[in-house]
Amino acid sequence: xxxxxxxxxxxxxxxxxxxxxxxxxxxxxxxxxxxxxxxxxxxxxxxxxxxxxxxxxxxxxxxxxxxxxxxxxxxxxxxxxxxxxxxxxxxxxxxxxxxxxxxxxxxxxxxxxxxxxxxxxxxxxxxxxxxxxxxxxxxxxxxxxxxxxxxxxxxxxxxxxxxxxxxxxxxxxxxxxxxxxxxxxxxxxxxxxxxxxxxxxxxxxxxxxxxxxxxxxxxxxxxxxxxxxxxxxxxxxxxxxxxxxxxxxxx
Length: 251
Description:
Order of helices and strands: EHHHHHHHHHHEEHHE
Distance between the termini: 24 Å
Helix content: 40-55%
Strand content: 5-15%
Number of helices: 12
Oligomer: single chain
C-alpha cells in the first residue's frame, strides 16, 4: 500500500531510530482502519529493550517522550492514543509529530478525516523548510478544493499560534529547564560512565544497563545546538517519500 513517508533515521538521542519488535502484520491487523498502513512508519517499530532505553533517555525532553509514546501506540494499532500522544509532542515543537498528525487527519486514522486540518498541520510541520515535509504539504494543497483551501488557511492560523516554533520552542525550553533542575548530579565535573541497571527480559537475573551520559550530554541541554541537530537529521537523514494517496472526501 502507498505511504506518504517511511522514515528511518540514525540519531537515537532524538528518538528517531528505526528498530523492530512489531511485525508488518501487527501494523496491518485485521481490525485496523483501512488506511492504517498509509499513516504507519517503520520508525514506529522497536524492541521492548530499545523502547525502555529510549524512554529513559527521553524523560528530560517532552517532545521525544510523547513522540515515543505515539510511535509505540501506532505500532500497537492504537490510533486514538497515537493521535493524543503525537499532539502532546507537537506542542513542544516536534515537527515529526506535527507531520504524523497531518497524515492522520488526511486519512481519517485516529481522528475524523479532515483534509483542511491535515493541510494546516502539514503547513506547521513544514515551518522549518524540511524538504520532505514541504513536498508533502504541497501535494496535499494540490488535492484540496477551493472551500477546503479557504478553511485550511483560516484554521491554520490558530494551529500556528499554538504549535508554531515561536510558541512551541519556548514551551519546550521551559520544560527542559525544569527537567534539568530535577536531575541530581555532580558539581565536580565529569562523573564518567553513568549507568542505570534495569531488569532484563527474564528479570533481575539478566539485568540490562542504560547509559545516561547520552541524556546528560551538554548539547542536549543547549536548545540552539539541539534544534541544529534536528535540522541536520531532517535535511540530510534517510527519508523515503511516497506519492500522495488521495483520501476519499467526506460526504
